[in-house]
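Handout, tutorial session.
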Amino acid sequence: MNEIITKNFQDNNFRIFIIKNKEFFFAKDTSSLLGYTNPQKAIRDHCKKVISFKDVFNMNESFTLDLSRELGNNWKQTKLIPESDVWRLIIKSRLPEAEKIEEWIMEEVLPQIRKTGSYSLSSDTSQEISLKEKLELEFVGVKNTIEILRVNQASKIGMIEVVHKKYDLETSYLPKYSDEEHTYSAKALLEKFGVKISVQQFNKKMISAGFLETKTRKSSKYKTEKDENGKEVKIPILKEFKSLTEKGLEFGKNLISPKNQLETQPHYFESKFSELLEILKIG
């Protein structure tokens, strides 16, 4: 049976095409839902098994579905992706709600479709990806986050531990980092050293010296804009946070923010703070 099933997540349509008991997700729907501002680029960069309706025609001579009314005259060029590429887009997404979307797709949408009786899946046609593939994709996401945020060793282990616990894996063999020098926030050390400047002024000097930089992440809030076709789309509002550069890591470390795992909080070594103040010419 060939059919298109439309689901909705927070006013975003999410379409799935079913052919010969296999699910293919509309690539643009999926990337837009996951907060990618340039869906086409996200599909090119992260998806490995993209096909189009034209490909479906070429592979299935009996395919007779006409979607020109729903998708326009160029509907055969519409891109489709399998479940494995959905996972890749989820892992690469920086959208705060990506995990909720993952749960919605994998734990609600697909199980519901597979129970409706509209089609049945046999073991040899199932598109579910293995635990091994899921873990590989999860750790690609962890690796990318570590590289982007430049977090300290303890935070790296913490992120890896989160993935292990998510899949009920043993964590006892993970190393414990208890020997790192304790660090403090800029505010705490400025007060302790009797420095009469604000954290904002301190951060400006740190940025000027190349020790600190401002990064952004997508927040849970959105603004509405119109795309090239005049259709209103939701664009995530970016939130700024500070992160120590490679140069700045000599004087502290980036901790994962307790408010959001995609943010860092710069913390500083007390033993190096006097030297840092001297370099910044803060008396």
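The second record follows below. Compare its token runs with those of the first.
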Amino acid sequence: MSDSVMITLANRQGQSFDVDAGQPLLHTLEAMGVSLPYGCRYGGCISCAAKLISGSVDQSNGVALNRRQIRDGYILLCVALPYSDCTLEIGVESHDRLYRNPFQSPLSPDELKPDIARSFFSWEDSGEPR
């Protein structure tokens, strides 16, 4: 049996749940009756993104978040496995800094996933796709 951790939902009146550390947060929170947005359930979209206020998770199976989103503390609930007690902001109201208007301020190379940045900037320099 896996260890359990306490998950607190900061923007849901501080509701707390004791959950299995070996299960994705989306699955365990839904089992506790928490209604959450989701799409793919495998880390390929950002519908289930949440803001990690404190604690730590393993989300190595998620691919949809860019470096800026990860640096800003976003996680994908469908693949995030909690390592410790965590405090989260969940739901669409936590997405205030998740999206960026590319016309207002374009992404810089350090905000892109390494393989995308390599491909994009290689193409930009040579005028040809890599």
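Points raised in discussion: The chain has two domains: 4-99, 100-130.
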